[in-house]
Amino acid sequence: MRAVLMAGGSGTRLRPLTCDLPKPMVPFLNCPISEHILNLLRRHQIQEVIATLHYLPDVMRDYFRDGSDFGIQMTYAVEEDQPLGTAGCVKNIEELLDRTFVVISGDCITDFDLSAAVEFHQRQGSKATLILTHVPNPLEFGVVITDQNHRIQRFLEKPSTSEVFSDTVNTGTYILEPEVLAHLPAQRESDFSKDLFPLLLEKGIPMYGFVAEGYWCDVGHLDAYREAQYDALRGKVSLDIAYTLRSPGIWVGEHTYIDETAKIEAPVLIGANCRIGPRAEIEAGTVIGDNVTIGADANIKRPIIWNGAIIGDDVHLRACVIARGTRVDRRAHVLEGAVVGSLSTVGEEAQISPGVRVWPSKKVESGATLNINLIWGNTARRNLFGQRGVQGLANIDITPEFAVKLGAAYGSTLKNGATVAVSRDQRRISRMVTRSLVAGLMSVGVNVLNLESTAIPVTRTVISNLNVAGGIHVRLSPDRGDQILIELFDSQGINISKAKEKKIEGAYFKEDLRRAQIPEIGSMTYRSEVSDTYSDSFERHLNVEALGHSNAKVVIDYVYAVSGAILPRLLSKYGCDAVVLNASLTQTAVSDEERENLLDQLGRVVEALRATFGVQVYANGEQFILVDETGSPIRGELLTALMVNLVLTAHPRGTVVVPVNASSAVEQIARRHDARILRTKANPTAIMETCHSNPNVVVGGSGEMGFIFPQFHPGFDAMFAIAKIIEMLATQDRSLTQIRADLPYVVHRRYAVRCPWAVKGRLMRHLVENQAKDQLELIDGVKLVNCRNDNWILILPDAGEPLVHLYANSHDRDWVDTTLREYRHLVQDFVNQFQGMNREEENLYT
Questions:
Q1: Is there a contact between 365 and 348 (Cβ–Cβ < 8 Å)?
Q2: Quick one: which of 7, 125, 99, 124 has its CA closest to 46?
Q3: SS3 568
Q4: Which of 164, 313, 518, 602 is such that its CA lies 20 to 30 A from the CA of 246?
């Protein structure tokens, strides 16, 4: 027996899920709805299927092909010009239907006994048999009344409330004899329920109703789509599930990893190649597609998640639908009945309100609350560049295809034939991204000087000594171990300016990319003497004689995170003894807890060896923490003050560059040495640019960012800073403990407060408008200063997170504690007030 699968519908009530899929191809328990129908047909020995197609026909044809992989024989009939309706599309293939056939909708879920229905049809001598079922609410369906012999007496398609005369409805599945098609006009739109069946009833042609036992659901709208899957998980409908039943009510696909701390409540379906993170909670009724990542602490309550979705840490999903390839970032909430279309992104701490629909390929910005459907246009995409460069999740945001396009965009802003130096850390992910960047650069006619794996200070030094247009360095982010950081440099080795970043972003987003002809494709060369170039410059900028007489012993901990660790070799050349710990490089980042344990270990080794000091180097050679001879760590603001003290003792009346949030200890030290302090924005590029543009700068940076010695090269360099510390300790005949004891007493504390993106600007304006102008500094954020006693509070919005940072500085601990508490409450109250106003506006709108 043949069956006609009606699969031409566009499924407008399932939008946005059907924007790029016909309704029968929408996933249901991780395979298309129509696949469940074909499985039903095959179970009842119906193995020849003709699918009538209209909307996006290639999607079904490409999936099922000839049907052999599914145990059936598939052919297709496409309505090319206009849809012909449920009956018209079957009339269109009349020549293929020479015996009794079944017509079944491609967008329902059922386990009806089709064999019993066919037997009933034949026993009754029926020309048209409608498979019927009882439903609680018949308003959405065709209502049918039959007599005691099951012959149809009355038929009404989708009645109004006053017209309902039965709860027995037409399921859209029919068993027909070919001759009934003769009653339909050719090449004209017609419908079974509205046209053919009323006509057959009028003519007295035998038409029967078979009331089927079993489950049936028309998944024509989003609520039914979700509820039917919950029913399937609870066993209310008999369907084939293509995954292993790992435990009662929990189906899991192959190669899926579930963290042992995750909590899963049956029934649940989890696809193949998924990753379920630590402490994730997955509630009964959840369906998770293949290749899905669920982050740590995610709270998942009955969503339908399609293949390839990425659900971030601490995300909350509530009875929603997350379509193919969509990403939901950390702490975002998608609430009941919401739908997020394919390839969309929901930013960190964003919220999608109940029932809201997001069309495919849209972006909900971090911190945004979406209360209306997002259909037309894109939400403004985030800038490529953040505070330090281009940063994103490894192999999720920063993918090979992204890197190729970024390389091409950067190269398109340079002259054809220019040369760019490229380097990376030793991790495989960085090598992969670097190769993609190189391909993009070469595709636009830019030559590449490949420095391969090397520490970032070495790259900056080499760039400033070569005739290159700029440089790129790829590494694991020093702030987030799951992210890649791509930094772009100018010809001096300084991070590119904001103006240059905007130019690259313009080329990237507008796809204004140069395409080189075959003879113009860029070349790639390698430079073998990279370390020698750095070493020569390193030596020229040190007091080598002082190093040689220092008899220093330094313990260096590389925390498994620095490429090309050449410092021990350089120090030994100058007569210093360097003991190296943890020099091998791991493919994944060391956690904060592990790093603290290694720092504690370093302190014990320094004490045991009676070393001059110890140092923990990280961020691929840019940043460090000191450990004094007693094993005590020196970091953060203490390290900033110590470095300023050392350098200004060696170079009185010099200029020091620090970020706006550095403690007032630097000003107090500067007064002792008749020196000048320049404060800049609290980002690395601002520090580098200020150091480069002021000729009298002797050091710049902070304990958080690292330190710059601009006479050497314009970037942060932990290796050179360590050598300078040895030199200055020797010439000043002091130890770190002695210098530490000489530092001014300052209380400097910070506190982070959650602040939605939409509130940050209003908060800053509120602070500016309500403070005396003579107390304001607006270098970066809002700083309220009392110049007489160095008391100040800085309110600094975070550039990449929905946070505001509070920094308080004073000689008086009580003042710091009181002021931090006061401004913490001020920010929290302002945020709560703003959100309360928003809720009132929503209620008024509703």
A1: no
A2: 99
A3: helix
A4: 313
Percent of the chain with pLDDT over 70: 94
In whole angstroms, what is the distance from residue 315 CA to residue 279 CA? Answer: 12
Sheet of 419-424: strand order equals: 390-393, 483-489, 470-476, 419-424, 447-453, 524-526
Cα 740–chain centre separation: 43
User: Across the chain, which distance is largest between two alpha carbons, in Å?
Assistant: 115
H/E stretch holding 472: strand 470-476
Q: What is the pLDDT of residue 564?
A: 56
Q: Three-state SS for 775?
A: helix
Residue with tokens 């300023």: 644
Short-list 26, 163, 28, 8, CA closest to 88: 8
**Distance (Å, whole) CA 286 – CA 300:** 7
Distance CA 596, CA 616 (A): 10
287 vs 531: which has the higher pLDDT: 287
**Amino acid present at 187:** Q
If phi > 0 it is left, if psi is from -120 to 50 it is alpha, else beta; for residue 740 that is alpha
Residue 845: pLDDT above 50?
Answer: no
Count the helices and strands in the chain (H runs, E runs).
21, 55
The pTM for the full model equals 0.64
Q: How far apart are CA 215 and CA 112, in angstroms?
A: 7
Strands 613-618 and 207-211, sheet pairing: unpaired
Residue 30, pLDDT score: 96
Q: What SS3 string covers 92-154?
A: CCHHHCCCCEEEEECCEEECCCHHHHHHHHHHHCCCEEEEEEECCCHHHCCEEEECCCCEEEE
Q: What is the dihedral of CA 435, 440, 443, 446, to 10 degrees?
A: -90
Distance (Å) of CA 480 to CA 71, 390, 623, 801, 804: 49, 13, 15, 13, 19
Q: Pick from 84-88, 156-160, 655-659, 772-776 the range whose average pLDDT is largest.
A: 655-659
| Separation of alpha carbons 403 and 442, rounded Å | 13
Contacts of 761 (CB under 8 A, 6+ apart): none
- Residue 166: which pLDDT band, with cuts at 50, 70 and 90? low
Task: Please say whether the beta carbons of 444 and 516 come within 8 A.
Answer: yes
Mind spelling out the 3-state secondary structure of 661-687? CCCCHHHHHHHHCCCEEEEECCCHHHH
Distance CA(5)–CA(100), nearest Å, equals: 14
For residue 189, give the amino acid letter.
Answer: E
Dist CA 23 CA 18 (whole Å) = 6
Distance between CA 725 and CA 649 in Å, rounded? 12
Q: Which of 217, 221, 207, 222 is nearest to 239 (CA)?
A: 217
Closest by CA position to 302, among listed 252, 267, 354, 349: 267
Packed helices 636-650 and 665-672: angle between N→C axes, nearest 10 degrees: 10
CA nearest 17: which of 420, 287, 343, 267? Answer: 343
Neighbour-count burial for 185-210, b at 16+ CB within 10 Å, e otherwise: eeeeebbbbbbbbeebbeeebebbbb
Chain-centroid distance, C-alpha 714? 32
Q: Looking at residue 163, what is its pLDDT? A: 42
Q: Look at residue 575 and tell me whether its pLDDT is greater than 90.
A: no
Return the minimum-mean-pLDDT range out of 103-112, 271-280, 382-391, 581-590. Answer: 581-590
pLDDT at 771: 83
Whole-angstrom Cα distance, residue 447 to residue 177?
72
pLDDT digits (tens, 9 = 90+) for 254-296: 999 999 999 999 999 999 999 999 999 999 999 999 999 999 9
Cα–Cα distance, 11 to 221 (Å, whole number): 8
User: DSSP per residue over 320-387, as a string?
Assistant: -EE-TT-EE-TT-EE-TT-EE-TT-EE-TT-EE-TT-EE-TT-EEPTT-EE-S-B-SS-PPPPPSB-S
pLDDT at 708 over 90: yes
CA separation for the pair 379, 365 (Å, rounded): 7
One-letter identity of residue 96:
L
